Amino acid sequence: MKKILMITSCVALFSSCTLSHTITCTNNPVGTKTGVAKTKIFGDQDISYATACKNGKISKVGTTEIKMTNYLLFLQTKITVTGE
Predict the structure, then answer these.
(1) Cβ distance 66 to 57 under 8 Å?
(2) Each residue of 28-77: pLDDT tens digit?
(3) What pLDDT is attached to residue 67?
């Protein structure tokens, strides 16, 4: 019984759920540049489109991907922007 409880606890602690959505927000081409903004456990929590564009030096946004991963104790969000 203890082994089953231990295995179940380990699986629950190391599991995650991921939700991903890609958006074509303008008529601009997809482009070759990519910018990423994501949350961190400690520190900067800025996950805006402007930050992702600034990180990839993008002036015209083609597509955006939003990916949220839910771990047992925290949520990590990542925004990926492509364009020119």
Answers:
(1) no
(2) 888 889 999 988 777 677 888 889 999 999 999 989 999 988 877 778 88
(3) 92
d(CA 55, CA 62) in angstroms, rounded, equals 15
User: Is the separation of the CB atoms in 79 and 34 below 8 Å?
Assistant: no
Largest CA distance in the chain: 59
Q: Half-sphere exposure of residue 51, counting CA atoms within 13 Å on the CB side?
A: 11
Q: How far is 2 from 69, CA to CA, in rounded Å?
A: 30
Please report, for the chain, the start and end positions of each structural domain, with discontinuous segments joined by +: 16-83
pTM above 0.85, yes or no: no
Q: What three-state secondary structure class fits 33?
A: strand
